Amino acid sequence: MRRFVGVIFGIATQLLFLFTVWHLFWFLKGDFSHHESGALAIDVLLALQFAVGHSLLLYPGVRSAITRKLPAQFYGSLFCIQTCVGILLTAFFWRSSPIEIWSLTGWGGWLMSAGFYGSWISLLYSLNLTGLGYQTGLTQWWYWLRRKPLPRREFQPRSLYCCMRHPVYLSFMGLLWFTPLMTLDHAILTGIWTAYIFVGSYLKDERLSYYIGKPYRDYQARVPGYPFIFFGPLGKRKTKPAPVKPLKKSPLRTT
């Protein structure tokens, strides 16, 4: 029975992921502007619940507590479910605003739309570089299903990750900013999630530095978090030299 539940749990997670991607695409493409108008405070809470929940589930202490009750192979699926539920709550209960900050037509609108679709391509490509199956929990679940141990992931940055540490976050930021129509409610979503992206980037650096250690800290010293950021925690991080231990003096012998 436990194995049957595990199989259903894994399949349902992947179906939920596909369902969420479909709705996220249309929501960010402009569906938010057709929702019922209402208090923008609801939008603030919806945007925050995704950011806070997403970050808490990644905290090492929370992860350790969860994996004491849940098999580690299902943690990726649980994280995927939390992400999907947070996005769907935002998409389904959003409240629109008639106030327009910008509304671009002609070449401006075409360029914004091109940036939006290009961000989707970049997002999927970036996720694929690090293993899309790991992001959705599919890989971990698949190894569990075949009763095989999950192989250790090697830290080998390539392609976009040789230019920046967070191409996934940058691509997701493009989904928010590249829009021909920016209403007040969309600006609230864009502002909160952009702030979360930068905070989340820092937290991810700290998390990977904790789990991977020196190889990741060396990587931070070589590659910035984002292009054109030259200082701070999201720039190139200076590695602290290892403390030099004083040599112990051997006692002199007297003859």
SSE blueprint and pairings:
Blueprint: H1 2-29, H2 40-58, H3 60-67, H4 75-93, E1 100-103, H5 106-130, H6 132-136, H7 138-145, H8 167-177, E2 181-183, H9 184-212, H10 214-222
Antiparallel strand pairs: 1-2
A few lines on this structure:
Keywords: Membrane, Transmembrane, Transmembrane helix. The protein has 255 residues and is mostly helical.
Quick tags:
single chain, about 260 residues, mainly alpha, 10 helices, about 65% helix
General description of the model:
The radius of gyration is 22 Å and the shape is globular. It is built from ten helices and two strands, in the order ααααβααααβαα. The chain is an all-alpha fold and 255 residues long. The protein has helices at residues 2-29, 40-58, 60-67, 75-93, 106-130, 132-136, 138-145, 167-177, 184-212, 214-222; strands at 100-103, 181-183. The N and C termini lie far apart (81 Å).
The percent of residues in helical segments reads 55-70%
Integer count of domains: 1
Overall average pLDDT: 87
Q: Strand-and-helix sequence, N→C?
A: HHHHEHHHHEHH
Radius of gyration: 22 Å
N-to-C span = 81 Å
Question: What composes the largest sheet?
Answer: 2 strands, antiparallel
Percentage of residues in DSSP E strands: under 5%
Per DSSP, the total helix count is 10
Summing up helix and strand content along with how strands pair, one would put the structural category as: mainly alpha
DSSP summary, beta strand count: 2
Biggest sheet, strands in spatial order? Answer: 1-2
Low-confidence stretches: 250-255
The general outline is: globular
